[in-house]
Write a structure and sequence with these properties.
This protein is of the alpha/beta class. It is built from 13 helices and 15 strands. The strands form three sheets. It has a seven-stranded mixed β-sheet with strand order 3-2-1-4-13-14-15, with helices on one face.
């Protein structure tokens, strides 16, 4: 089925490509034409479904590069994930996937769940049984005994344990391998955020085993030491990349940023970017150390992508993440490219999504207004198109026709349009 979308302007990606009075023609899951309205409209068949938004902008769907579908924002996170039945947790994850889609996210990377349940959500979305973004999933993250996020089941010790966990994740269907290189603030009793959990040699073992299975590696690393070890090990992305050297001290190293750029290691801050409440507590100088690092990384040639850390933060907040990080020396055009084209390329999906061009999968966002003038326009979403499926944010799920079962918890009762 064809869908013809017309809008006041088209931002096809990468930055700088802007077409006024534009249209996009979708056939099935693919984009078949994009450009000036008159030219694209002439190609469309007479039975094409039309979406006309003369005051809107059509742009590529957003890419949230760091989420946790299994987490629920708020207190009691550990107990909720640890104690939930698989079926209940899958239902929760399905709801979170839909919230991401409502927020304009058409591609997301899940970087840690319990029991590899994200694989079920990924496959159900791909098959059209659930409304949600295209997913790339890491399944169970590796951590040390009693380490950060131990409750997800990925505790390992020694080379044999590390390799076995990576092999198990690959067999379960993981697209990425995630390892908790440093401590984290949400797991009491373990290493502090700036303290390493794995040595450089152990991270190298993770990368080596992952490469045997054709999988890239993402490393959670707040501390400068863990960032350096991750880069030396040859990881693909560093999550958070906070450059902490103590409880209230940052240690941004220009030489390490240069090494990241030379090795093609991508930085993902994995944060809401909401610096204003924190500024009242710690002061402007500390805030500039923490949040100004993205501009400094980019100035050293490091590719930066954005992740909301949804699950610890709200699933509906990615547009705010883009706008918040835009406060730190990036133009609206740079932020849009970072959250679309740039992220798709960094995640190995540059030939699939992130641009609006013939032959790409139809991942589109229609927003009222001009996000190049005001990034908050990304919150004013009228339609989301994910792999050619048109989704209206807030639309009700399809009524249940049968109860999902333990063997198919994403079955008909969980399905929704989109």
């Amino acid at each position: 089925m064809q869908v013809l979308i017309t809008a006041g302007q088209l931002l096809a990606g990468p930055m700088g490509e802007r077409t006024p009075d534009a249209a996009v023609l979708v056939d099935g899951a693919m984009i078949v034409a994009a450009g000036p309205r008159a030219r694209v409209r002439a190609i469309a068949g007479p039975e094409a479904t039309r979406i006309d938004r003369p005051n809107a902008t059509v742009l590529p769907g957003l890419v949230d590069a760091h989420v946790h579908l299994a987490f629920e924002p708020g207190p009691g996170l550990i107990e909720a994930v640890r104690d939930a039945e698989d079926l209940d947790l899958v239902r929760t994850m399905a709801g979170h996937a839909r919230q991401l889609l409502d927020a304009g996210v058409t591609t997301a990377r899940d970087l840690g769940d319990r029991g590899g349940l994200s694989v079920r959500i990924r496959d159900a979305v791909a098959a059209g049984r659930l409304a949600g973004p295209r997913l790339r999933v890491a399944t169970v993250p590796l951590t040390v005994p009693d380490g950060h996020c131990w409750f997800l089941g990925g505790e390992v010790a020694g080379e044999a344990g590390i390799r076995a966990r990576v092999r198990a994740n690959a067999a379960a269907g993981a697209d990425w391998i995630k390892v908790m290189g440093s401590g984290g603030q949400r797991t009491p009793g373990g290493a502090q955020m700036w303290e390493p959990q794995f040595t450089a040699a152990e991270l190298a073992i993770v990368v080596d085993e992952a490469r045997r299975h054709g999988l890239p590696v993402a490393v959670h690393a707040h501390g400068t030491t863990s960032i350096a070890d991750a880069v030396a090990a040859g990881v693909s992305t560093v999550e958070h990349c906070t450059f902490l050297a103590g409880p209230s001290r940052s240690d941004f190293r220009p030489d390490l940023a240069d090494s990241m750029a030379a090795a093609g290691v991508v930085a993902c801050p994995a944060s809401s970017g909401n610096w204003r409440p924190l500024a009242k507590r710690v002061g402007r100088e500390r805030i500039e150390e923490l949040f100004g690092r993205l501009r400094r990384l980019a100035d050293h040639g490091v590719t930066v992508i954005l992740g909301s850390d949804a699950g610890l933060n709200p699933f509906a907040g990615f547009a705010g993440v883009v706008a918040n990080w835009g406060d730190w020396g990036f133009s609206p055009g740079e932020m849009i490219e970072t959250a679309t084209t740039g992220a798709a390329v960094a995640l190995g999906l540059g030939s699939v999504t992130g641009r609006i061009a013939p032959g790409m999968e139809a991942d589109l966002l229609l927003v009222d207004g001009d996000p190049l003038a005001d990034l908050t326009a990304l919150r004013r979403i009228s339609h989301v198109v994910a792999r050619g499926r048109v989704h209206v944010p807030g639309s009700p799920p399809v009524p249940a026709v049968a109860r999902p079962t333990a063997t198919d918890p994403t079955g008909p009762a969980a399905r929704s349009p989109g």
